[in-house]
Amino acid sequence: MNTVLVTGGAGFIGSHYVKELLQSDDVARVTVLDALTYAGHVENLGEAFLDPRLTFVEGSILDAVLVDQLMDGHTHVVHFAAESHVDRSLAGEPLFVETNVLGTQILVNAASRHQVERFVHVSTDEVYGPLLEGMATEDAPLLPTVPYAASKAASDLIALSAHRTYGLPVCVTRSSNNYGPNQHPEKLIPRFITRLLRGKPVTLHGRGEHLRNWLHVQDNCQGISAVMRHGRPGEIYNIAGGTDLTTVQLTELLLKICGADQDLMTFVPDRRANDRRYAMDWSKIRAECGYRPEHDLLEELAATADWYRAHPDRWAPLSDRAVVIPQQATTPAL
Ligand code: NAD
């Protein structure tokens, strides 16, 4: 029976993952360690919060003593905790390096000492930086553009170094853009949905031609579980296979789903360092771990909009506090 320590389990993806984990019969105990920053909410865990196998610990991955105590008795670690919002990172806050890099170092140190059986470090396609053409495989160079992506790239290397140095059985997952219920309204899809539902305009950067792969959050969680079970220690696995859309294409779908007028789509000058295109090859996880995404974008975007429609209590107080970054085009378009 597995005992799993999940960091960042009150955040968007972590909370979906904890719910999935608790559906599994071979999980005896789950401990969530979450600092409950502006991005973490125990409400995200829903009924899972009351599951007798779950222990929730409010605390930071930067607290080495706490992390060491918690690691004892856990066979597996899944590490989601991070500062995750690109726009906030553009302000150059040291918190991104502290949480994402130092926090990961503290976790892998403790996990190595306690000889956990598997450590899954959750990361992002943004570490590869923009691609003009082709798809990034796991051995593509790390060319992050923004501080968030750079801190994640550094944390990936820290996690992998624990495998090489101490033999910690680390796997790194890098997924494309996730969407689904419970996501903080500072992120693009919930920001657009919550504005369109209130009849407010949405603003696209540049000409809205940035291309992203949109993956349902439960598909990412399924990929992380597949890597936990079948991934080879020391390996990186890309998780994608969602739908590639430009921001304009995505916005047109959201306008339809929310029953909003076309003229609510507005444009502002591009933001700083806005990568033009991300694309990942995910054949490795498919071949080695049997991963296949199952969710249909149109159906799930509609379900996501329904969730925000039904839960204004959850997002309205947060929307008003969403961060605003000055618009500025300082880098040439790719
Ligand atoms: P999120 O911002 O919704 O959640 C982050 C969680 O980490 C929050 O609950 C927060 O309270 C917690 N946290 C922050 N600092 C902490 C600390 N010092 N100690 C303990 N907990 C702390 O993020 P998310 O979107 O759920 O992303 C989770 C992970 O997945 C991140 O590592 C992110 O880089 C990665 N990722 C996200 C996406 C995406 O589209 N959202 C895509 C690829 C990878």
For this entry, give a set of tags.
binds nicotinamide-adenine-dinucleotide, 3-stranded mixed β-sheet, dTDP-glucose 4,6-dehydratase, 7-stranded parallel β-sheet, alpha/beta, 334 residues, globular, NAD(P)-bd_dom, UDP-galactose 4-epimerase, domain 1, Rossmann fold, 11 helices, dTDP_Gluc_deHydtase
What does this structure look like?
It is a single chain. The protein has 334 residues and is α/β, with parallel strands linked by helices. The protein has helices at 12-21, 64-71, 86-89, 95-113, 147-166, 188-197, 217-230, 247-257, 283-289, 297-310, 312-319, and strands spanning 2-7, 27-34, 54-58, 76-79, 118-124, 170-175, 177-179, 202-205, 211-216, 235-239, 243-246, 265-268. The chain has two domains: 2-178 and 216-239, NAD(P)-binding Rossmann-like Domain (Rossmann fold, 3-Layer(aba) Sandwich), CATH 3.40.50; 179-212 and 242-273 and 296-319, Alpha-Beta Complex (UDP-galactose 4-epimerase, domain 1), CATH 3.90.25.10. Helices cover 37% and strands 19% of the residues. It has a seven-stranded parallel beta sheet with strand order 3-2-1-4-5-6-10, sandwiched between helices. A three-stranded mixed beta sheet has the order 7-9-11. Helix 2 packs parallel to helix 4 (95-113) and helix 4 runs parallel beside helix 5. Mean pLDDT is 94; it is low at 323-334. Residues 7-8, 10-14, 33-37, 39-40, 60-62, 80-82, 84, 99, 103, 122-124, 152, 175, 177-178, 184 line the site of nicotinamide-adenine-dinucleotide. Nicotinamide-adenine-dinucleotide binds at residues 7-8, 10-14, 33-37, 39-40, 60-62, 80-82, 84, 99, 103, 122-124, 152, 175, 177-178, 184. It catalyses: dTDP-alpha-D-glucose = dTDP-4-dehydro-6-deoxy-alpha-D-glucose + H2O. Belongs to the NAD(P)-dependent epimerase/dehydratase family. dTDP-glucose dehydratase subfamily. Its EC number is 4.2.1.46. This is dTDP-glucose 4,6-dehydratase.
